[in-house]
Design goal:
The protein is α/β, with parallel strands linked by helices. 50% of the residues lie in helices and 12% in strands. It is built from 30 helices and 21 strands. The strands form five sheets. The protein has an eight-stranded mixed beta sheet with strand order 14-13-12-15-16-17-18-19, sandwiched between helices. Strands 1-2-4-6-8-11 form a six-stranded mixed beta sheet, sandwiched between helices. Strands 7-9-10 form a three-stranded mixed beta sheet. The two termini are 33 Å apart.
């Protein structure tokens, strides 16, 4: 029988419980491992000869938290409040037994301990961590819409004080062992080869057998909740929470309530409070949507689950980047950071050198902050060769062009680079809007031509959109995905279309904001509501960020390409006027819908009301809800059209791409999850209303009407998204 957790006892009466799950790279909590853990605890408590217990791991890390299947079952299984409560309370009872059973427990933390893994450690009476700077200790549940449900919201504040614990709980921050020691989360940090010995030394001394919070005289670190400091802190925390979450995320609010309420009662009652809030999150939609998109589906994408299986794995050693502007420079940086040799080409040497200087600046900052050694910086910089000479393209496994969004310029650099490439090398275009099949017409090997669309700034944005042209081969797709994985980005794969998936859908957000402006809605209302939906910023501000002149060029090129089929909107003449008549290009020239003074904060351009009269200047609750719905539904209906047209092939990719690509409100789980949450039939009904009132851009596609008639959803069953 497979043993996930084992117990051994030495001659000194010290038991060691070791998590080491066969066939897994990391230990997780699931039915099997928890069952084995309980069996080991039973043996330890039953044996009077055992003086103390060490908990450790047989792997390089400790325990990573709950297993994927367990999380799926909690979030996507039956919404049975009683069963969920009983399950959560069961694990809490296991940890309370460790705390109150009369035997001392030491956590020997050899590596990363996250979520439930760290909660196990917090329930021990002493914590020793190996001096491993790569290890991370934290409670990241808030990032996927949950809270630590095994006592984390109760033990951590009682251990280090609410003021120190709240940032870790509310932001999901993790700490390396030395930082955890400074925060008093661990009691000792020792060399890795001394870890078990240090744990044993503690147990053979005068170890604690009870937790401080179980003592009658326990005083809360930092003072009581209703003390002057506590009241001030919780009042401030509540205000900051509302400012940052805009009321969209229930998990941070639940965490704050757990800490506030739980610290006023004994630990047992505090744990019951935690369970109540934990289950309330599981019963809602936000946690399930965030878990599915930001945890399960991102993991599947990072594993390249949609990669063609019959294509051998590839490992890019040398690439060429054409264009050393901000995008090209960013691509060169992330590639060199992955150990790839990069040839960075531009029209003149000064521009190429400037592109390399972008990496120099980022690396110098990393060195100055102690995150990188100078030798490592020099090594990475040595991999980037700025040049104007296409002869250096020879030997590249992959070329990525990142030149201006002009078909003629892209065709020119494609021909120059391909003349130097091996027959089996891949050519990728970083275009954000131009159809790949059209760009591939300049290639002599369109089967090796593919879209590799990065997002700005490349060093920070995690997504890469891989676009299949009409003739792109499975080999090109596989090799592009291998490269994206190597540079530690998350890929989604889509089919060719104007604007593909991400640019096409993102464009609807900014366009709808400009449409509202043209209707006479005050710009402050539009942008404030846009930000309140959970989008990164309001649509007008984002228009400035992307650049109004770029939007004008894209719209002009699209109108030229589509001819009579192009559907102009009220946004078109407004953008044209801003760019061609007023020279307001956006943040890039400090003039757009906003002004950007050199010595002061940005502010809405006062002259905007002169060219667009403002008819609605007061934001009633009804108006705010309508603006909110228009901004979110406009993006979601476009995502559904992309699903219908086969541009995006999986609901999982649609949601992941939306959140990680253009910042679609993460609390929804993505636009497709939003449709499911609203209900397809209700979403169709509301879109019909919006279409009748504001225009055909809201009209739901036939796919949604058919699904509504059949009572279908995109994410159909437990784990369905992960299997798509």
């Amino acid at each position: 029988m497979t043993q996930n957790v084992t117990l051994t006892v030495d001659a000194d009466g010290i038991a060691t419980i070791t998590w080491d799950m066969p066939g897994r790279s990391m230990n997780v909590m699931n039915d099997g491992s928890l069952g084995d853990f309980v069996s080991c605890l039973d043996k330890a408590f039953a044996d009077d000869a055992i003086k103390g217990v060490i908990l450790t791991s047989g792997k390089k890390d400790f325990v990573a938290g709950a297993d994927l299947e367990m999380i799926q079952r909690m979030c996507f299984g039956p919404k049975d409040a009683r069963a969920l409560t009983d399950n959560a309370a069961h694990f809490q009872k296991i940890l309370r037994r460790m705390e109150t059973g009369g035997k001392p427990f030491v956590a020997a933390i050899n590596g990363t301990a996250l979520g439930g893994g760290l909660e196990i450690c917090l329930a021990c009476h002493y914590r020793v961590a190996a001096d491993n700077p790569r290890a991370q200790l934290g409670l990241p549940e808030v990032k996927i819409g949950l809270l630590p449900g095994a006592g984390g919201t109760q033990r951590l504040p009682r251990m280090i004080g609410a003021q120190a614990a709240l940032p870790l709980l509310l932001e999901g921050k993790s700490l390396d062992p030395k930082a955890a020691l400074a925060a008093k989360i661990v009691d000792e940090v020792v060399p890795a080869d001394d870890l078990l010995a240090a744990a044993k030394r503690y147990l053979l001394g005068t170890p604690r057998k009870a937790q401080p919070w179980d003592d009658k005289g326990f005083k809360q670190p930092g003072g009581p909740v209703h003390g002057p400091g506590g009241m001030q802190m919780f009042t401030f925390a509540n205000a900051m929470l509302h400012k940052t979450t805009k009321g969209n995320y229930p998990a941070p609010k639940a965490i704050l309530a757990c800490v506030y309420e739980g610290l006023q009662v004994p630990i047992e009652a505090g744990l019951r409070i935690e369970t109540r809030y934990f289950v309330s999150l599981l019963l809602g939609s936000v946690a399930g949507n965030m878990v599915r998109s930001l945890f399960i589906n991102v993991q599947e994408a990072n594993k390249l689950s949609s990669r063609p299986k019959d294509v051998p794995r590839s490992d890019a050693k040398k690439i060429t980047v054409l264009g050393a502007g901000m995008m090209g420079a960013g691509i060169a940086y992330v590639s060199a950071m992955a150990g790839i040799e990069v040839v960075l080409i531009d029209a003149d040497q000064a521009s190429a050198d400037k592109g390399k200087a972008y990496s120099q600046d980022l690396l110098d900052k990393a060195v100055s902050k102690g995150r990188m050694a100078e030798a490592k910086r020099d090594q990475v910089l040595g991999l980037i060769m700025p040049t104007t000479d296409y002869a250096h393209v020879k030997g590249s496994d992959l070329v990525i062009e990142a030149v201006f969004e002009t078909r003629e310029i892209k065709a020119d650099v494609t021909k120059k680079a391909e003349a130097m490439l091996a027959a089996d090398a891949i050519f990728g275009s970083n275009t954000s809007t131009l159809p790949i099949s059209g760009l591939a017409e300049a290639s002599v090997r369109p089967e090796n031509f593919i879209g590799i669309h990065f997002f700005s700034p490349v060093d920070k944005m995690p997504l890469v959109e891989i676009i299949m042209g009409a003739k792109t081969s499975p080999t090109a797709r596989a090799r592009a995905m291998d490269y994206v994985q190597k540079i530690k980005k998350t890929p989604i794969v889509v089919n060719d279309s104007r604007g593909f998936y991400t640019s096409r859908c993102f464009g609807t957000y900014v366009s709808e904001g400009i449409e509202m402006l043209a209707e006479g809605i005050a710009p402050a209302i539009i942008d404030n509501v846009g930000a309140a939906t959970g989008m990164p910023r309001g649509p007008l501000e984002l228009s400035d960020d992307v650049a109004l002149d770029l939007a004008y060029k894209v719209r002009s090129q699209t109108a030229k390409d589509l001819g009579d089929k192009y559907l102009a909107t009220a946004a078109d003449p407004l953008i044209a006027k801003m760019v061609t008549e007023l020279g307001r290009f956006g943040r890039k020239n400090r003039k757009g819908f906003y002004d950007y003074p050199e010595n002061g904060p940005k502010h809405l351009w006062q002259g905007l009301s002169d060219i667009v009269p403002q008819k609605i200047t007061e934001g009633s609750p009804e108006l705010i809800e309508e603006v909110r719905k228009r901004l979110l539904y406009r993006q979601a209906v476009e995502a559904a059209r992309c699903m219908e047209e086969g541009v995006v092939m999986a609901a999982a990719d649609a949601d992941v791409g939306a959140i990680m690509g253009w910042g679609f409100a993460p609390w929804t789980g993505g636009p497709i999850s939003l449709i499911d949450t609203v209900g397809v039939a209700k979403f169709v009904e509301e879109c019909d209303r919006l279409a009748q009132k504001y225009g055909a851009r809201f009209a739901p596609p036939q796919l949604l009407r058919d699904m509504a008639a059949k009572g279908e959803t995109f994410h159909k069953a437990v784990g369905a998204a992960a299997a798509e």
